[in-house]
Amino acid sequence: MNDAESILSDMNDRSRDVFRAVVETYLDSGGPVGSRTLTRSLSEKISAATVRNVMQDLEYLGLLDSPHVSAGRVPTQMGLRMFVDSLLEVGDLDRQDQQKIDATMGQNAGDVGAMLDQVGAALSGVTQGASLVLTPKHEAEIRHIEFVSLAPDRALVVLVFSDGQVENRLFTPPPGQTPSSMREAANFLNALIEGRTLSEARRDVQSEIQKRRQEIDSLAGELIESGFAVWDNDDSEDARLIVRGRSNLLAENDAEADLELMRHLFDDLERKRDIADFLQLTEEGEGVRIFIGSENKLFSLSGSSLVVSPYMNSDRKIIGAVGVIGPTRLNYGRIVPIVDYTAQLVGKLLSDRS
């Protein structure tokens, strides 16, 4: 039993009722909660003085805090954690919310990236927070590769995948490249990488070039190395974090201190750092996880909360994640089923495609 569970088990019914009422009122209003406000919402008719005494006890336990001397109380991070783990009542997914999320799934069905972008926009719109969608790595087999000359110092390498997706990259070819060297380079790569995924091909191309150096024209060899290397130096084929709805966070925060916290969050989101860590947050199993304040390693400086759930492919392997980030006063009971439903739907859609 951890400290929060121990505290909860030692609390009497009145203390639990007051604590629950403080947290629920705070999550609804976003501001400190006073004793007079609580006396109107509690089922048990008790005086404001009694409520104040109970709130003082809860503050002593570390569950509540007083932002100002004369103001009401707000839950601490430990208080929110205890509420989420032990007292949170998660509602059913609202029918209108479900319809808005469902409506995005039929859009851009042929393009996974565009579809997930639409999912992020819908998730942000439904929750009025900022949404995060970690896209899966593209692991379809390669069907064909081609080099296209655009200018003496610029060329295009095009990859066609077995699922129909086409990716291309601009690169600087070696000086003196010719149509024949481009054909030779493409033929060499097609014989080598057809039927392999990009990550498999990355491992093998360099070693094959070294082994078969005598078989390849030197110009074609340089072209292969410089053309295929753009995928080694480009993370766009790896997991990508889509962020939508950052303006919603500003609308919810007027106080100067809150805006400073949001600035830290925006800086983190802009850099999109530690994307791999975002997926690791979900790797302890299926289902929705909630990270509050400093528990959230990725965005700890902003004091934000993150509600996140992984989605899986047909082999039950975690390949990505969806989440909502916002202030600690998120409506957890409403957002948890939204994130859970969206993750399951994305997983099913991607499994059906494969």
UniProtKB/TrEMBL annotation:
Transcription regulation in keyword set: yes
Keywords: Repressor, Stress response, Transcription, Transcription regulation
Keyword rRNA-binding: no
Ranges of residues in domain Heat-inducible transcription repressor HrcA C-terminal: 115-336
Any one biological process term the GO annotation gives: negative regulation of DNA-templated transcription
Entries under Gene3D superfamilies matching the protein: 3.30.450.40, Heat-inducible transcription repressor hrca homolog, domain 3 (3.30.390.60), Winged helix-like DNA-binding domain superfamily/Winged helix DNA-binding domain (1.10.10.10)
PANTHER family referenced in this protein's UniProt entry, alphabetically: HEAT-INDUCIBLE TRANSCRIPTION REPRESSOR HRCA
Name the UniProt record assigns to this protein: Heat-inducible transcription repressor HrcA
